[in-house]
């Protein structure tokens, strides 16, 4: 019942008068009805599995058919393209690599919006330009559907264990419905504001993360060269105003901490290439909003240079290694 | 006599066997003998007062006689110059603005080393180039004295309340004696390693602090322009990997936190000019050790530009204000 | 009829055999037929006047009707929107502030492509993202028209005196026709390659210009502080490897050269805001092509900061003033 | 006779009254009397040879005896240390790698000033911190000698062919005497002002050179990725406001120009390590004079990172190669 009203409330919110309940979406009436999932890559795959574990029937698709095998074996129905997903599910999650993929999955010739049902809830967990999120939201609204951006923080490990953090932008009255689904895949689901603010929060966090990581790497390297023991230096920073996540939780210097990529030759973790992509988004939004981001901009350039020097697939904390190698080696 | 004995203990510290306790220094045995203090500025003044409060007779000097009045009224003996301090005290603390002042106070015509007693303990709490600390240590050693660098973190408030953090470099066997004095003025006294590592730790911390502060300011500004509420954005960053001291303890955006300079028009706190000075030291040590510090270097330039634009005396978190002003205003 | 024939010539250009000259376009044969002009701002106005001076009938439009008065008085026919221009002229020049304006003028509801004639030659002299130029070219090609990008270097003065430089991208076989028109407004018309390369050349030049200007300003300022006479320093740089256009032709230090904005309180010339815009384009194309541009990126940030500090409308050489102001002033 | 008077004039200039001509230096009376030369490295060796070619008897020394062989075979007298050079020659040129070497050669235990004759002319062609030049000048003045800084531009090739440019700082009345010697080794000898301004001019030029080179490399790389032909792009830049020495005389892109290191796998030319050193000097002088040099500072960091990545001994134009390598290669 609450679900019925909830659907009502949505329509009411926009067209408050003369609601004909006969036309109200049944989308979330039975919460264990089908959920669409588009994009079964490294992140999407474990996310879809977590939906299945929580009892949701999943109807999925991916441009690479082989990516669908695992979830198919676990019971998901596989269809040919996003339009078909939209034909069969009124709650859909998309998890795609970049803006053009998202644009295609929503507005392309076989895109969601070709067959989307009125009242559908479309949640995009890709990390893309907030301006694209806004465009998708506007296009969805024209079709009577609701679009929310809900990018994640946390990598493949968090996706597998259902411990992602979702940063959600969109109509506040839809947040409860979105949270119901996202909670199957994440430990934190944070409402950020209007459409695009989920992306904004994600991009902002990652820009500051990149700055903190490069800064920590420079600082640790300088301290070591000045004769400080790296563990002691990390300890001093972490009890002082230099403290940051990169120094106290994900230290880039091999041997300072256990269980982080710096202790494993920078394997695993969050790739330099992915960080460069997110910094590119940050740079684009900053340019478009005429916002000066001098350190964010330089961080972008450094990760871009690292990609050009063979670090593309190493964890982004490998900037320590990039900066420290000695002359003559 | 005390000096001779002290010198023994010092040597004993290095050759730990066959210690004849009869010869152990009385320097710290009689802990409430005179302590010299050179440099009674904004920081030195409250520090010297804390020594007096702890019952130490203080013999002090400053190039500006008027700076001596307060401690004189509290019982300190004032003399004309560092040499005279050294003539009367075998434990001396120096707290001076910059490298040239330190060089002069130690090796100048009326410097400490002109009259230093063998076995004296010389503690420099100024923030200077670690290379200068090493030079002073070598010069002191020639005179049979021990030099330690012990720069502080924490500002005038922490100095007044005796809550400074001291980062100490020098012979480890002298650390206990140094700590006895420094504990009167600080809450934390951390041993960092050989001479100069105290400075190194201080400089490293402040470089990372500057990077974190500018990064936080850029990020908050970008997020606000993208439609995020600043308090919400700070909360998201602080539960995510963008978290740093500047975001969670000293947020630069007015209204996000209470009790920080951003809430008080950037009055008080740690001045931009002082940060620019510390970043200049970081830059110099990085240049001299051929260490790349791209973000540290750009942070230095930004604080330098801020000094040129009227921000010299505002708290260093005012970089948020520097970056955010709108076109046309 | 002319349009049909012109279309033939265009096709002929691609399929060079069996050309029947009887079908060759009359577009440029009767060179003094109407030329469309869209965008009569600071630059477009004098450009359109030069077309009139060269005897071309001009049919023009601008979103601000008052911008049309001058050319109307000189004989230009004013119409309501770009579609109407396209209805009456098969050679059209657009000169607009930014990418969205160009997109609207070509593909908007009253855009050129609504009524463009087959075989029309569309030349865009705006400075925009080369990716947008490519999109416009593709859209024009669908309608049987030819699009070329032809951004200019040189400011309002060069526009008035017909001394602009045009950097032209597009089908090489159309270059002669484009050059015929552009030569009325410019002293140099350079063919750069496929569509978008005109923009690329413009953006590249301006990025290097910005780097050179900031670099010259830093260098002159440093030299002056080190005791060098600015005129002498400029002379030394200009006979050495530091030489660049900003040092030898447009020196940013007041008093070093005559007839440049630095001698006139940075009035006139090329505004900081316009430079920031071009650097934003450079940054975007670099991000999109994954090209590291560390100095270009920092130059962008510096001009962005200057805009935020009141320099938006000063000549871009005012970066010297921005960097040099003394502490305490 | 002129030479005698010239010597007089010098003393007169400083102690204008009561000159006793008996004590006047005979230094430059016979211009082909011995010239001292200290530092026979890659640059010093061909410079000393040019002095020999011009008929000057040379008395030389170097810390590496084997460096002395060539000039010894050509007739130079080799002595053990700078003090002995000063004992036998009253005009001395020093050409050393860095500030500490210069300090040692002048003020060390076997330094020039131990045996320098009153009225001697000491010319330092090393590239060092201008502050050190000033210290050396002050120390020399105490001994009655004259010190001038005269760093060079031009590499080993220019040193061999006698085509160096000397930038000279020091007492103007000594310039003629300095020029007489320096003209044997260089094509241009430029008077820059007081002591240290020769260094200042050198450092300023090289900072702007580094900025221009990195800027040109970024720009060329960006343009190529945007589809421009590199030769055409260079041509366009060189006729436009992006023009600089690095684009028109020493283009970093292989194939654009002949006879430059980019055409020879970046062999020869001016090594990245040497550029990093000069940028370190620029950074230090900027820090010490509180001058913002954002691009110069970033250029320093980039050349420092290049040294850490294996580019130390390649020509500094190899920054193009450093920036351009593709992802995945």
UniProtKB/TrEMBL annotation, chains A, B, C, D:
6-phosphogluconate dehydrogenase NADP-binding domain: residues covered: 34-193
Enzyme active site: 202
Reactions it catalyzes: 3-hydroxy-2-methylpropanoate + NAD(+) = 2-methyl-3-oxopropanoate + NADH + H(+)
Membrane-spanning ranges: none
UniProt entry tagged with the keyword Coiled coil: no
Main subcellular localisation: mitochondrion
Molecular-function GO terms, alphabetical: 3-hydroxyisobutyrate dehydrogenase activity; NAD binding; NADP binding
UniProt-listed GO biological process terms: L-valine catabolic process
EC number: 1.1.1.31
One GO CC term on file: mitochondrion
Entry-linked PANTHER family: 3-HYDROXYISOBUTYRATE DEHYDROGENASE, 3-HYDROXYISOBUTYRATE DEHYDROGENASE-RELATED
Entry similarity comment: Belongs to the HIBADH-related family. 3-hydroxyisobutyrate dehydrogenase subfamily.
Protein name: 3-hydroxyisobutyrate dehydrogenase
Organism encoding this protein: Sphaeramia orbicularis (orbiculate cardinalfish)
Gene that specifies this protein: hibadhb
